[in-house]
Amino acid sequence: MDRIDRAGRVIAASPAAVYGALLDRQALEAWMPPEGMRGRVERWDPRPGGGFRMILTYLDAADSPGKTSDATDVVDVEFADLVPAERVVQRAVFEADDPAYEGTMTMTWHLVPAGDGTEVTVTAVDVPPGIDQADHEAGITSSLANLASYLERAD
């Protein structure tokens, strides 16, 4: 089965502003963690072939045990392709002992002008089978809502 997880949202910010928030370390820490999590970037190299390592910590690990430890998900992300104000392609690998989380997931952030804002569509392929599709899409939707709040507040 060729699974594609996706979510989208129109954000009241220019494609350049959205692209900037995808490639700014402090911005990413602020908006990327979905509801119920906080994030910290350990390594940062925003160029094609570069990437980042993010530690995502569950605020309540009792309801959502992590992939890396009881309370955390650690993900290493490579920037596979960067097209200013149009697209960011990330290759993500979770640090986990469970083979259900093995593999490299590719997430593509598409940015398309939409009136005074930007339609942001995120697609994920090669998602590890241990990640539930509905939960993953809800997480992406939550991150997009955070991104919208972050950028719309900045204007």
Automatic annotation (TrEMBL):
SUPFAM superfamilies: Bet v1-like (SSF55961). Residues 13-152 form the Activator of Hsp90 ATPase homologue 1/2-like C-terminal domain. It comes from Streptomyces lincolnensis. InterPro entries: ASHA1/2-like_C (IPR013538), START-like_dom_sf (IPR023393). Belongs to the AHA1 family. This is Activator of Hsp90 ATPase homologue 1/2-like C-terminal domain-containing protein. Pfam families: AHSA1.
